[in-house]
Task: inverse folding
C-alpha cells in the first residue's frame, strides 16, 4: 500500500516507473568484498587439538556441527528423531541427520562419518535417560540453547569462548587454548558450520557447499533462492559425495574423537 492512498498524508505517488534497486555506499561494497575472508575457520588439525578438552557431550556437538555444517541454533534443536538409519526417500541405509531449519524451513540432510554417528547414538541414549527429546541439554534436562532468551546461544557461547572476569571465573574452551597454545585462534562457535562447506566449495562448487549448510540458494548459486521443502527439489545426492570424500581430510579430527 502507498501512503498516497491515505487521507492522512499530503503526498502523491510518483508517476511512471522508478528504480527499486537500493543505492549502495562505498562502505557497503567494502564490507561485501571482505565478508568471505573476514572470519577464519578451524582446520581439522586444530579441531583435533580442541577435542581432548571436551567432555563426551561437547565432542558430540562439535562433531555434528562440523559434519553437518550446523551452528548453535540447529544443534540446540536436534532431537532423536532427526537421526535415521535409512534415508526416507532413497531408502539408502546409513547414518543420516535430516532437519528442516527453524527460521527458513530449508531442508537439510547429511550422511555421518562413523565416529560422529557413534557420538550421535551416545547423545540419544543420554537424552532418553534424562527424559528429554532434545540432545543438547544439561544433566538436569535444561536446554543449552534457550529459545526464550533474547540471545538463546548465550550458554553455548560462554562454554566455548568466555573470558574469565572478577564475577565469573569460567574460561571458555578455545579461550583457554588461545592462552596456552601459541598461535591457537579464538574463533566463535558460529564458524564451526563453515568448515566443511569451505573445504568442499573449491572442489564441488557453490551450490553443493550451500547444500552442506542447508542454506537457500538458487540454481545459479545465488544466496536467497526459493526455500526447499522436499528432497526432490534439489540434488542432495550431490551433498553426500563431498562429505564422504572429505572424510580422509578430517581424519586427524575423527581419530581424536574416537579416542577414549
Result:
Amino acid at each position: 500500500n502507498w501512503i498516497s492512498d491515505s487521507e492522512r498524508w499530503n503526498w502523491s505517488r510518483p508517476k511512471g516507473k522508478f528504480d527499486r534497486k537500493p543505492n549502495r555506499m562505498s562502505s557497503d561494497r567494502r564490507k561485501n568484498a571482505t565478508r568471505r575472508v573476514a572470519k577464519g575457520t578451524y582446520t581439522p588439525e586444530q579441531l583435533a587439538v580442541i577435542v581432548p578438552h571436551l567432555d563426551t557431550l561437547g565432542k558430540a556437538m562439535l562433531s555434528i556441527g562440523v559434519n553437518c555444517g550446523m551452528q548453535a541454533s540447529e544443534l540446540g534443536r536436534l532431537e532423536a528423531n532427526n537421526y535415521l538409519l535409512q534415508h526416507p526417500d532413497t531408502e539408502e541405509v546409513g547414518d543420516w541427520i535430516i532437519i528442516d531449519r527453524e527460521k527458513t524451513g530449508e531442508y537439510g540432510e547429511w550422511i555421518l562419518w562413523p565416529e560422529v554417528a557413534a557420538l550421535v547414538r551416545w547423545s540419544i541414549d543420554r537424552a532418553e535417560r534424562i527424559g528429554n527429546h532434545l540432545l543438547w541439554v544439561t544433566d538436569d534436562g535444561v536446554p543449552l540453547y534457550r529459545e526464550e532468551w533474547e540471545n538463546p546461544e548465550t550458554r553455548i557461547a560462554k562454554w566455548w569462548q568466555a573470558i574469565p572476569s572478577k564475577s565469573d571465573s569460567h574460561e571458555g574452551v578455545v579461550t583457554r587454548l588461545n592462552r596456552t597454545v601459541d598461535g591457537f585462534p579464538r574463533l566463535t562457535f558460529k564458524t564451526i558450520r563453515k568448515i566443511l562447506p569451505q573445504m568442499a566449495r573449491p572442489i564441488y562448487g557453490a551450490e553443493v557447499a550451500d547444500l552442506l549448510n542447508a542454506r537457500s540458494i538458487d540454481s545459479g548459486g545465488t544466496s536467497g533462492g526459493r526455500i526447499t521443502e522436499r528432497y526432490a527439489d534439489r540434488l542432495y545426492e550431490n551433498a553426500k559425495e563431498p562429505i564422504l570424500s572429505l572424510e580422509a581430510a578430517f581424519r586427524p579430527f575423527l581419530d581424536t574423537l574416537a579416542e577414549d
